[in-house]
């Protein structure tokens, strides 16, 4: 057993070694005297802890850490489960079997694969909790922080009272009067804390804590309730909970669980229903569309997105839902999709494309206000130098200023009145920003009476 197990348990190391030997889940289960389902659970935990998405990537990471050696000790082809010889029967001549690779060839191939994978992962700029140089997009705990972030002097952004506890990966919503910051991740870990902002007093107060501490979440308002689904739990697993907050009663209740665990999804409300798009289920990024009906307290499925993604954002505009940006596991995305529920079941389908963002954005906020969309933040792998607004009639994005440049990801954004609020996030450290953007300018015109 290796001395440095990193984040893995001894049992997980045993499973990983058998995976590296090419064993199937059933073979691993028999060898370790556990069920195939338990093997799946161990694999899911291994993938999450190592920040990988496949058995191949997990094997390469094991080789890199020295948990698995290449050459020597590797099982011979066909050794596992080889049957006893039986009666000789006429059979067709089998195809020629290539000569086995020499030890140096296997070492060369694995090292080359590891270097390629390391390059791809390094380009994403991820860091795992407390482990320098290791990767996961689902937490910033343990990352080196660069200190206070310089704020750009911009004309239409106004600084309001900062969030009492700097955080990112939280949900942000409004009840029409106040702003709510729900759960998320702080320097101390994932929190259940809920805060609300009173614009008239320019001050924050504490509300009832969320029943489940989660991060990588979004919130939507439906009627007089605020809905928060899934999220990343303190142990790194994805949750399947649906929790609903009543601002008037300052109380939470639990509704029907999601069909499967989900975090880092995009959420929007349309016609009194909650829509979730894509996200991370604990093993992989998904492309699913989940629809929740509050009246019946039940989930259903819509047509999936063309491709999986997470850390994207969604907002309803003009009877459709726009889904923008995101992260596919290696790159930030600039693509923008539109979902039309009325087109479900038609030949064309509900999904179509719109003009892409001017630059890729992962961990962004997307807000509809008036006849426009506002894309705020990003800069996960590509430096952020501006935010954007979308004109649906022209199908075009144009630049607007940003108070935070370079990187501003996993923030919360919401519209209230004629303003857009952007809160918290990560930019080399957890942010406590409360930024107010004057999106719609009002002009008062003099009133004239007849005869003047």
Task: Please supply descriptive tags for the structure shown above.
single chain, 452 residues, alpha+beta, Arc Repressor Mutant, subunit A, Neuraminidase, 2 domains, four-stranded antiparallel β-sheet, 5 helices, 29% strand, globular
Structure description:
The protein is an alpha+beta fold and 452 residues long. It folds into 2 domains: 10-74 and 105-124, Arc Repressor Mutant, subunit A (Orthogonal Bundle); 157-438, Kelch-type beta propeller (Neuraminidase, 6 Propeller), CATH 2.120.10.80. It has 5 helices and 24 strands. It has helices at 10-20, 25-32, 36-50, 55-65, 103-124; strands at residues 157-159, 171-174, 179-186, 189-198, 203-207, 219-222, 225-229, 242-246, 251-255, 266-270, 273-280, 285-293, 298-302, 313-317, 320-324, 336-339, 351-354, 365-369, 372-376, 387-391, 396-400, 412-416, 419-423, 434-438. It has a 4-stranded antiparallel sheet, with no helix packed on it. The chain has a 4-stranded antiparallel sheet with strand order 2-3-4-5, with no helix packed on it. Helix 4 crosses helix 5 (103-124). It is globular and about 70 Å long.
